[in-house]
């Protein structure tokens, strides 16, 4: 028999607390009734309603489009930013830049959202054609994702041995080749992690988006929030179920991407050891 | 680098897929090239079918955004940067928006069907002669109760809330104007009172209510009442309509001392870019068939007199939602008290919330 451990019980309780509400919600998405008060029977009516509601579907697709795109842009900027900070010669400047990066990480979403609203309306007063909408939301999502990417990539940079870059230089590589063949491949796990972090941040952001949406562009969180006033429909349960499943697939995908990397390295190490044994 | 490239290409592929998905969906919902009407409304406050029909009939495409409070809507419109052609605020907010020059005066000759509206909902204090707004829905503040826990007909007035039998069984809506107003009404004062002594008296009376108060909550009140967590709740008529649809034991009364009569009206914000579309939408909503369909879908009371004739009798004869004229005469509309008095109301309400029995 396995040894009894308090820590296992603790973990079980924590996971129950985290997952029970989600499963409760998923369970009721199959209800025949229209409320979560009573389970009256199994039906897929709410899923049908969801797929008939093209406005909601557009919002969902837009939310994901926004998340994928803003994470992509933020990752590009963030990686370059991290490299820029890391290779900065002046120590004080490096520290200041890092601190500024961290300030953005901890500042409340509401503050960021409000400042973006003021900023964008200012831009709007200069350029008449600029309105709150997809572009403003995209820009603010990129902005709050960049510091996260920087933070995910920097440790990888610090892990990297500078001698590799020096060696490449000695062998005549130019800056682009150093970047392409040495730095970026080494940073890949950090970049992927940063991308997924930025993606999730964008996906579940409510506060910032709330301020900068407009002109027909909304995201899931804002839409569900304003529907909540009238009592949430089970259609939202159905949607949440689908999004939950999608996130599950995403996590599994991420697991395989990062695992493949690890197992390759393990295999290489094993091979090396074997060779060492032989000699 | 190869993996990064693969990831990058993969993401671009997903992006393209999503982009075309949105495009095709948008095309299927309407003419993407058509002129757009931007509508800013409360969440779930219109029958979606009506939007489709409006798009079909008028040829405009509707961009429909939602807000959850008058204040949020006000900030968005005041800040600019949005181009809403239609917004649907409540009466006190309309007054505030008029004062701050945020809404456009209506060109009456472009409105068709304003005479469908019951005259008693026109020309009200917050917008005299309806220079800026057209009624959309109206409702009251009242008491919802569950006849399993309270005898049917036992509650007719605000004063009944103080009954010792209701100990720890009353839920209040979390609104300063609503609750202080209830106190004032129960004493026979106006709920727009600016008399310091009346306000004091009202709060003293409300303090005596605290043993009965189970909770002061917001929109969750609906769910709690449906689940029979509490016997009595002070809430809005439309919320009560939802409760009654879910739980047949729930009834709604408008207290006889008088209560609040509220309105949500259509206005054209100053930022509007498609005024023709805005008028088209207002006219569309003024048509009796559309107003009736909307009222049936939402559950609030329609101000449209001709629509009433189209609604089922059991709805329009329901005194709870379409009170008699004499009862209506007792009801009062909130006036914008100005920030000073709004502050006093808020402070009194906060003190009340902190008061321990």
Automatic annotation (TrEMBL), chain B:
Report the main location listed first in the record: periplasm
Positions that bind spermidine: 92
One term under GO cellular component: periplasmic space
- The gene name on file is potD
Which keywords label this protein? Periplasm, Signal, Transport
**In its UniProt entry, what is this protein called?**
Spermidine/putrescine ABC transporter substrate-binding protein
The organism is Tetragenococcus koreensis
The taxonomic lineage of its organism, from the top, reads: Bacteria, Bacillati, Bacillota, Bacilli, Lactobacillales
List GO molecular-function terms, semicolon-separated: polyamine binding
Q: Which GO terms describe its biological process?
A: polyamine transport
Compartments it resides in? Periplasm
Q: Which Pfam families match?
A: SBP_bac_8 (PF13416)
